[in-house]
Write a structure and sequence with these properties.
This protein has 26 helices and 18 strands. The strands form three sheets. A seven-stranded parallel β-sheet has the order 3-4-2-5-10-1-11, sandwiched between helices. A seven-stranded parallel β-sheet has the order 14-15-13-16-17-12-18, with helices on both faces.
């Protein structure tokens, strides 16, 4: 503890290494709490507001602990900050090398075997993007797709050449020694601090029960952006089956059956065609553009017949592959994937188990059926919180209504977990103004999008652009974007979906009077300090749709237990999400700006006071003229 106090002291090594360092006793206390947890074990819940130096407060104790520590985040932005800014700073301050590694999910890495196969067949297309991919593949040392910042997110060919679990041959692969994924894992095995994302961490947690491993063995874990844990963890303790899995299986089984002569036998052709037809017949039930539909019972009638034909077809195809394909690494992979796919599909022919929710949905070009636990807390209590490994959970938004009770209940964190709260350094009473219109249409009213567009125009005329407009639905976003495009405001309008997220943010930062319209992807993990962002405009309180199958099932479960689902689940979730959106505005002590929430329920409904207790203590106005006065006092609108 004394060493931590010295490092964070006003004249300590951190002050010497970090220009403009400001000593904060709360930051040092947080670091000591992390150090104590890593040393003694247990669980620590830590909320640290923006600007508190949270990452340094947990990375320094992790570096000094001597333990192998996994740091799990929700966003790539934070991963980049940790590896490129924070860890080098810590090494300078501590005057020691800290072995670190970034480990991503396998689909982020180029598979050399698949790349050689598909490139030899010219299956990756032609043109500038394909040429870029070919050149990069020859030169890359890591195989990490993140190096290809200009590669479109929807570049279909990447799926054919990345290291998917379905196609991986492991040590049987001829490229095993040069494998980018294996090299990344070897580096992670040697590192003391391994940075991952929540998806990879819970993928690892889910397979460890079966003796598998995704992340090399570690001694402690620190979750940053820990408010995402429930959402992410739920995805990895159930079953998900996609139409794309059948497409990939057929694509890889066909050359196996055709052999060197590239000719299919009659039986092989019939087996492939039967699966292709049965797959189309079943998955067409959940067509493109269809919203998620809950499957309250097992399939029956025509759907169960179609599913049975698909399973039968897959069974016959696997028998044909076994009989006609030559033995080898590709055969083993196809058989393994086929059996796994068949088992998953057959599970949907049985009724849902107690505590399980199922749904079907369209995801891009493919359709998917899912089955996950309604509550993930009991699973986490058993597999994560009951072990001997220290666990730290931190975020700028862990408390709701001033308490950790909500997150602790949802994740089933033991009641003896330690808690610490660090208030941020920002003076919201002087740096920020919260505006809620005096009167406004109800969010469910047909004229709500029109009213939002008109109000945004008024606000932008006062802020001179420089605004994030955050929406809870893509439908309203598109309607408002279309209306703003016709309004001739004179500001550059950037709309989510028109370009990759990082490209839009870069344009927003460069064009100081631009306006960015975004949905969920921009509510958090975005850091734009300075004058470029002077207003955050939120269309309505971010309540989750009760029609979402998982949300609906959770509401039913809480009600069945005799509690109010609104008070115990929907309201706290909305408060946490709104706090994240509001948090985009003030990112430094020099920032000034306005948060406009165009949902009068924040002030008119009884539950509004609960939500407000989770927000920064900024003055509230319902008079739009006060915004002009605020800017005239704080910063001239140029």
């Amino acid at each position: 503890m004394e060493q931590i106090a010295r490092i964070f002291s006003p004249q300590g090594p951190l002050a010497a290494a970090l220009k403009g360092y400001q000593h904060r006793e709360e930051q040092a206390n947080f670091a000591q709490s992390v150090a104590r947890t890593l040393l003694e074990g247990g669980i620590l819940l830590a909320e640290a507001g923006t600007g508190t130096g949270k990452t340094l407060a947990y990375l320094i104790p992790a570096a000094l602990s001597g333990k192998k520590v996994v740091v799990s985040t929700a966003t790539k932005t934070l991963q980049t900050q940790i590896l490129e800014r924070d860890l080098p700073l810590i090494e300078a301050a501590l005057d020691k090398k800290v072995a670190s590694a970034l480990l991503k999910g396998r689909e982020n890495y180029l598979c050399l075997r698949r790349f050689k196969r598909y490139s030899s067949q010219m299956a990756l297309g032609v043109g500038n993007v394909a040429d870029l991919l070919y050149e990069w593949a020859k030169e890359t040392k890591t195989g990490d797709r993140g190096e290809l910042s200009s590669l479109p997110e929807d570049f279909d060919a990447w799926r054919q050449i990345c290291a998917t679990s379905e196609s991986c041959l492991g040590q049987k692969c001829r490229e095993y020694e040069q494998c980018h994924l294996m090299n990344a894992r070897k580096k992670a095995a040697r590192a003391q601090i391994v940075v991952v994302n929540h998806h990879l961490f819970f993928a690892d947690l889910s397979v460890r029960a079966q003796g598998g491993e995704v992340i090399p063995s570690f001694s402690a874990v620190i979750f940053d952006e820990a408010h995402h844990i429930e959402q992410v963890a739920t995805q990895y303790f159930g079953i998900k089956v996609s139409s794309g899995q059948t497409v990939e299986l057929l694509k890889d089984a066909t050359p196996l059956l055709a052999g060197r002569k590239k000719e299919l036998s009659k039986s092989a052709a019939q087996a492939l065609e039967a699966v292709e037809n049965a797959s189309y017949s079943f998955w067409s039930l959940f067509g493109a553009g269809q919203a998620a539909v809950r499957l309250k019972e097992n399939f029956d009638g025509e759907p169960i017949s179609r599913l049975a034909r698909l399973c039968s077809g897959l069974e016959q195809l696997l028998a044909t592959v076994k009989a006609e394909a030559k033995e080898g690494e590709e055969l083993d992979s196809v058989e393994k994937r086929g059996l796994s796919l068949l088992g998953d599909l057959r599970s949907f022919m049985e009724p849902p188990k107690a505590g399980e929710v199922r749904w079907a949905e369209a995801r891009g070009r493919f359709s998917q059926i899912s089955s996950v636990p309604v509550e993930i807390g009991p699973t986490l209590a058993e597999k994560l919180f009951s072990g001997q490994k220290p666990v730290v959970l931190t975020s700028a938004t862990l408390r709701v209504g001033g308490s950790f009770d909500y997150i602790a209940e949802r994740l089933k964190i033991p009641p003896d977990a330690a808690q610490i709260t660090i208030e941020g350094p920002f003076d919201y009473k002087n740096q920020c103004l919260l505006y809620v219109p005096e009167s406004f249409p109800d969010p469910a009213a047909p004229n709500f999008p029109k009213a939002v567009a008109e109000e945004i125009q008024k606000l932008l005329s006062l802020t001179n652009g420089r605004a994030f407009c955050l929406f809870t639905s893509h439908r309203v976003l598109r309607e408002v974007a279309a209306k703003l495009a016709l309004s001739k405001l004179g500001f550059t309008i950037l709309v989510q979906g028109d370009a990759p997220r990082e490209v839009l943010l870069e344009k927003f930062r460069e064009d100081i009077h631009s306006v960015l319209l975004g949905a969920q992807a921009f509510w958090e993990g975005v850091d734009v300090p300075g004058e470029a962002l002077s207003a955050v405009i939120i269309d309505k309180l971010p309540f989750m749709s009760p029609g979402d199958p998982l949300v609906e099932a959770r509401i039913e479960k809480i009600a069945a237990d005799g509690h109010s689902a609104f008070n115990r689940y929907q309201l706290p979730m909305a408060a946490m999400a709104l706090r994240q959106g509001v948090g985009r505005l003030i990112r430094s002590t020099d920032d000034r700006g306005v948060v406009a929430v165009l949902d009068t329920r924040l002030l008119t409904k009884g539950y509004g006071s609960f939500i407000r207790r989770s927000l920064p203590l900024a003055p509230i106005t319902r008079n739009i003229n006060d915004i002009a006065i605020f800017f005239s006092k704080n910063r001239p609108v140029s």
